[in-house]
Specification:
By secondary structure, the protein is mostly helical. The protein has one domain: Orthogonal Bundle (Helix Hairpins). The chain is about 75% helix and about 0% strand. Helix 2 packs antiparallel against helix 3 and helix 3 runs antiparallel to helix 4.
């Protein structure tokens, strides 16, 4: 599964599924999938709303990570190729 390979560099330990880092990585993956979906289905407003909610959730998790562990925040931005 491609998802686990991506997460291995981000997880704190083998069973880490709830840390902010992992949640941000999973949200980023879903956001990318939904963005591709919306390129072909422009009138799918329900999915667009879901996308906006995911982006807001990721933003708040990133803000939390920046406040609490700025070194992990910087590393995560580089790994996921996120702007900031």
């Amino acid at each position: 599964m491609a998802q686990t390979n991506e997460l291995q560099g981000i997880q704190m330990h083998a069973k880490d599924t709830g840390s902010a880092d992992v949640q941000i990585a999973l949200l980023t993956q879903r956001i990318q999938q939904l963005t591709e979906h919306l390129k072909t289905h422009a009138k799918d407003h329900a999915s667009r709303r879901g996308l906006l909610m995911m982006v807001a959730k990721r933003r708040s998790l990133l803000d939390y990570l920046k406040r609490t562990a700025s070194d992990r925040y910087q590393g995560l931005l580089e790994k996921l190729n996120l702007r900031k």
